[in-house]
């Protein structure tokens, strides 16, 4: 089976709502206390939206089964998930049979050091990208160790290339490397040990 590297997108429905929520988060972080908007009115409107969503939400168990349906890529994860507002979201393409990559430009919600990507966000993007590279290469597992080296600040507002490649499989031990680059330079590099183990999807 060939892994489908990109979650199927819907131009409408929850994907469109998640994209709107991403805009809201970005606009809120952009605004801070310097905005001319009436923030208590904004809070009321956002709480009204949350009230509507919570009232219409399915039972948690039904949603868990639904979000893990099938065997391919998920649509809800915090890195590629088009229906998850905290996902940038990344869209992977295959560079070769063991290597995948994505391009993303991150904004203020992902800031750590000034005008730079938070180190934990870089770790999140790399952990997930290494994991998906394993699936693409044909043997996946759970992260047992993830070693990161932060070479230089990772800029916000500039295109980043996030890539990963499976380098070896030895029994249940899978070794995978990856990087976040800006302008062709390594910002963060990663080495991961994954152990082949597959927690069952809720059915
Ligand atoms: C799965 C495992 C890591 C290993 O447990 P078990 O199955 O009980 O393994 P067992 O003890 O039977 O050892 C087997 C072999 O492995 C070796 N070995 C084991 N550990 C280490 C080590 N640290 N360092 C070195 N070696 C280690 C051990 O010595 C043994 O070697 P041997 O065969 O004797 O030569 C478990 O601790 C766990 O679930 N941890 C939580 C993982 C977790 O939450 N991760 C984050 C979520 S995943 C994610 O986000 C990424 C993702 C994104 C997208 C898509 C997909 C993925």
Automatic annotation (TrEMBL):
Keyword Cytoplasm tagged: yes
SUPFAM superfamilies the record matches: Thioesterase/thiol ester dehydrase-isomerase (SSF54637)
Keywords assigned: Cytoplasm, Fatty acid metabolism, Hydrolase, Lipid metabolism
Presence of the UniProt keyword Transmembrane in the record: no
Listed GO biological process terms: fatty acid metabolic process
A molecular function GO annotation: hydrolase activity
Residue ranges annotated for the RHA1-ro05818 N-terminal helical domain, each copy included: 5-62
Organism domain of life: Bacteria
InterPro entries documented for this protein: HotDog_dom_sf, RHA1_ro05818_N, THEM4/THEM5_acyl-CoA_thioest
Name of the molecule in the record: Acyl-coenzyme A thioesterase PaaI-like protein
Species assigned in the record: Actinomadura luteofluorescens
């Amino acid at each position: 089976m060939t892994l489908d590297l990109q979650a199927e997108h819907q131009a409408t429905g929850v994907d469109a709502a998640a994209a709107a929520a991403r805009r809201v988060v970005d606009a809120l972080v952009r605004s801070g206390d310097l905005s001319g908007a009436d923030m208590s009115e904004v809070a009321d409107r956002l709480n009204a939206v949350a009230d509507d969503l919570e009232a219409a939400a399915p039972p948690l168990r039904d949603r868990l089964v639904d979000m893990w349906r099938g065997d391919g890529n998920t649509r809800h994860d915090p890195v590629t998930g088009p229906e998850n507002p905290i996902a940038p979201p990344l869209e992977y393409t295959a560079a070769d049979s063991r290597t995948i990559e994505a391009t993303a430009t991150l904004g203020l919600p992902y800031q750590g050091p000034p005008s730079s990507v938070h180190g934990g966000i870089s770790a999140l993007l790399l952990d997930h990208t290494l994991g998906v590279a394993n699936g693409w290469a044909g043997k996946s597992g759970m992260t047992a160790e993830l070693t990161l080296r932060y070479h230089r600040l990772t800029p916000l507002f500039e295109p980043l290339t996030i890539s990963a490649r499976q380098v070896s499989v030895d029994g249940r031990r899978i070794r995978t490397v990856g990087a976040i680059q800006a302008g062709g330079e390594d910002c963060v590099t990663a080495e991961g040990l994954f152990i082949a183990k597959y927690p069952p999807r809720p059915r």
